[in-house]
Amino acid sequence: MKWIKKFWNFIIKSLGYLLLSVILVGLLTWFVWRPIKLASYSPVKADRLPQKQAYLESIRPQSTQSPNIILINFDDLGYGDLSCYGNQLIRTPVMDSLAAHGIRMTDFYSCSPVCTPSRAGLLTGRHPERSYAGDHVYFPEDHVVSSFRKLLSLKNEIPQDEIMLSEILKSAGYRTAIIGKWHLGDRSGHLPNDFGFDTYFGVRYSNDMLPLHLYRNQEILEEDHTELVSGSKSYTDPDMPLKRQGTDQTQLTIRYTEEAIQFIQHNQEQPFFLYLPHSFPHVPHFSSPRQAGQSEAGLYGDVIEDLDWSVGQIMAELHRMQLDSNTLVFITSDNGGDLQGSVGHFRGRKQLTFEGGQRVPMIIYAPSLIPAPVTTKEMASNLDILPTVLDLLDLKLPEDRIIDGKSLLPLIQGQQAGPHSFLFYTSAQTGEFKGVRNRRFKYLEDAPGNAIPLLGPLGIISSMKPQLSELTRDNESHNLIKKYADEAEELKEVLEESRKAIEQNRRGWRE
After folding, report:
1. What counts of helices (H) and strands (E) characterise the chain?
2. Are 423 and 109 in contact (CB under 8 A)?
3. 322 contacts: CB under 8 Å, gap ≥ 6
């Protein structure tokens, strides 16, 4: 029995030493390595600033009669949230009318199922991985998740040598404004005014990230003092017992709209670019008092109908000033719908590579460009907006970098089909390509396999498998990979080759 006792004591001592070692390593990590790691963090080196500056200086000023550009980008608006996209409870008469008199796209995508990557792609025309924006979303500099990202060597701001649509248009003589949510970093040198926006009014991050300060340019216009819940800075439910003080989210849509109208009024004599990235319908949901309780779809419907009112106010002002015939308007969403939103008949939601995560509404209204109203099934993505605008203005693309988007101008003008043979689906966590589609089929590298029979009701997944879906007739419910093996192999090769090309030249620089 003595040897058993000695062995037991040895085990206890060993476990004690092991626990002590873990504690010491943890303390060293937290108090020594962590501060050193955070202090040594720096944004991506802006190697291409000289080329960027040379390109912007080469842009010729546009005529005072050049078309105005308005880009409305909703936050988490689902494919099925508008009545012109099939919603039976939510009324969006303004956007319905614009779709009926313009172009309604049924196969339009965000370049990511989450917002920071999507916004980076929207403004640069480049896959988010190229700007180190592909791996989920940025967080405020003082947020714990921001520190965690930096410890993992993930970036938290868009590189300064990326070229945004706002910078190009400013160089072309446009007045430029962003009104709404930025979400591409809050370090000095990485703010809206640093990327060609003459004016900025709005919030830097999602409306669930507290404190939600309201900015005018780089100064805090209204400081938010909404209390934090149990030390958390996440605020997802409007019914949470918070003491709200500061930014009133029930007024955000109204204030963005008022600022947008003022910008249009002040710049009616020259071409302007208005980027209006609304904060809603991202959680928490707030509608204005004028809309509260009006929608058949409850609070969420109130929020969407509020946004439709906002679009109506802006279009009415354009009409009043006789600018609507010379204005190109894009209306879209940064990614698929969240839990309370509608993704129509599609599978999946925000953060997922199923259609519901990245297929979004797109309405294009431009009376002087569109020969006849049309609903089109041509594939396109928000990467295409920058090259479309530059094509319209006869401005050249930067030659020192790959622009992944393609111009939709011929499609808008009714001259030819869409420019894409393939579109890609990206991981919300890494930004890597995880799927690809052509006009008929979609190939996903990792789709949920079979549930473990015993725990099936809990949704526990036993495996991830490649899946081929026929998008023209199915909502990704059936895996056709064995039935169409050749088609699946072709798409798999496209996916692997495209992913490899980005891995070999992440920033997409050209010599």
Report:
1. 13, 16
2. yes
3. none
Q: Is the pLDDT of residue 230 over 60?
A: no
Q: HEC string of 453-492?
A: HHHHHHCCECCEEEEEEECCCCCCCCCCCCCCHHHHHHHH
pLDDT at residue 457 in the model: 58
Measured CA to CA, the distance from residue 433 to residue 277 in angstroms comes to 25
| Per-residue confidence (pLDDT) for residue 296, from 0 to 100 | 98
- Give residue-wise pLDDT tens across range 21-62: 788 777 766 677 667 767 779 999 999 999 999 999 999 998
As to burial, measured by CB atoms within 10 angstroms (0-12 exposed, 13-18 middle, 19+ buried), residue 169 is buried
Sheet with 68-74, edge to edge strand ranges:
219-222, 214-216, 199-203, 175-181, 272-277, 68-74, 327-333, 362-365, 103-105, 374-376
Per residue in 38-48, pLDDT (tens digit) is 777 999 999 99
Contacts (Cβ under 8 Å, ≥6 apart) of 38: 147, 150, 151
Element spanning 68, H or E: strand 68-74
- Res 455 pLDDT > 70: no
Active site residues: 115, 183
SS3 292: coil
Question: Tokens 């990326």 sit at which residue?
Answer: 162
Structure tokens at 458: 């809990």
Degrees (nearest 5) of the Cα angle 401, 366, 271?
65
Degrees to nearest 5, angle at CA 470 with 466 and 475? 90
* Residue 272 confidence (pLDDT) above 90: yes
Burial class (CB in 10 A: 0-12, 13-18, 19+), 188: exposed
C-beta contacts of 287-296 below 8 A and 24+ residues apart: 287/250, 287/253, 288/250, 288/251, 288/253, 288/254, 289/250, 292/250, 295/89, 295/90, 295/91, 296/89, 296/90, 296/91
Strand-pair partners of 441: 470
The H or E element spanning position 147 is: helix 144-151
Closest of 324, 253, 409, 336 to residue 97, by C-alpha = 324
**CB contact set of 251 (below 8 Å; sequence gap of 6+):** 288
- Share of the chain residues as helix, strand and coil, in percent rounded to the nearest 5: 35, 15, 50
- State the Cα–Cα distance between residues 376 and 411, nearest whole angstrom: 9
Q: Which of 150-159, 444-453, 455-464 has the highest mean pLDDT?
A: 150-159
Least confident of 101-115, 224-238, 301-315: 224-238
